[in-house]
Amino acid sequence: MENKTIVDWTVKDTAVWLEKEGFDKEVIFNLCDSNRINGKCLLALNEADFTQEPLNKLPLRDRKCLYISCRALQKENQSLLLHLGLLDHPSSSYVNQNHYQRNEYNEYMESEHVSPPVSEDGAIQKLKPEKIKALIAFLYLVVVTWITAFVMVIVHERVPDMQKYPPLPDIFLDNVPHIPWAFDMCEVTGTFLFTMWLFVLFFHKHRFILMRRFFALSGTVFLLRCVTMLITSLSVPGAHLQCTPQPLISQDLASKLSRAYFIWRGAGMSIQGVRTCGDYMFSGHTVALTMLNFFITEYTPRPIYYVHTISWMLNMFGIFFILAAHEHYSIDVFVAFYITSRLFLYYHTLSNNQALMQRDSNRTKIWFPLFSYFESGVEGIIPNEYETLEDICRNLWNFCRETGNILKGKIIPVKETAKRSLTNVDHHPLVRRIGSCTSSGNLSSKGD
What we know:
0% strand, single chain
């Protein structure tokens, strides 16, 4: 058996190999004596064979162990697979090739593959930063936040009169006393989460992909919030809020834009001096807290569980502070958390499994146009790879040097062209004639 290749293995050689792999006599008898499996059969075994007799009659342990052993055997003998016509490309095993052709998933191969370029751990082998897409996503968020600020001015003018429309019944607000400083603590909590997210972005290797996803999702949720704020105006949730309705004609467009700019500049935060009413359904503070929490936990490694724990605690405490301050109804907070978390999960489910999008790409482009554009170059899970401070400084230096070379390559030809133009002007006949006339005029004046 030592001098034989697997193709030449007899049934007896297969039985010897199975015995070395630790299978008991009953399994060996079933496979070799009853079904006459030889070396070629071992190389040709695929996932479908494990769902049929006789392999599906084996105990679960033996089936799993046999699958692992056969796959290792196939990887070690890829040249033989090519020779037998069981493999088209030497870089992938027969089992994987068969998996791609039939596009099946079962208990024997719980692969995270969605396309051949993806590695075995589900991570993408090479990812382009696509900085232009990150810039477009940022501009999209800026436009949406400006629209949100203007809508907040509109809904403040339409806030219901507190004397006519008292606060609505609410289980949480009716049973928890008002804490005046709680809303400021909510924004402090959000600041901590935002700082953690900046650290993640700074050191993450694929920061530009993370940025465009964060900008796109945040902008979409806040755009939806604009719609819900305009559709229905809820009454003020607490008597402590000084909210009085204003006539729609009390302010001209310039004053509204000025007020909207003040809200936009202060990011709608009370610690920045922004106080608004009427923007209740749904809570923008809850959206920000939840979005930051989900992005931090998604793009940090699982072993640093304490970061995830702190992030979730800050998220939950921030929501509690919103309700304790009686700045929103409980339904505002619940809807905000649900919509933000579901949109985050739906987006990442599609981006991590491109087969779901490719199955009906036209429908995806219609219902998720931003997703189709931003994730067109991503075909799997974004790996949580980080750079050291030295790597970041080196990349920044290389970027500055490349930018300088590009600018130098554009500026120097312009200077040379200008010099040649001046030289050509000096040698032009008309310029020479003018020069000679000027010099002769100077001589005649000196003679006089």
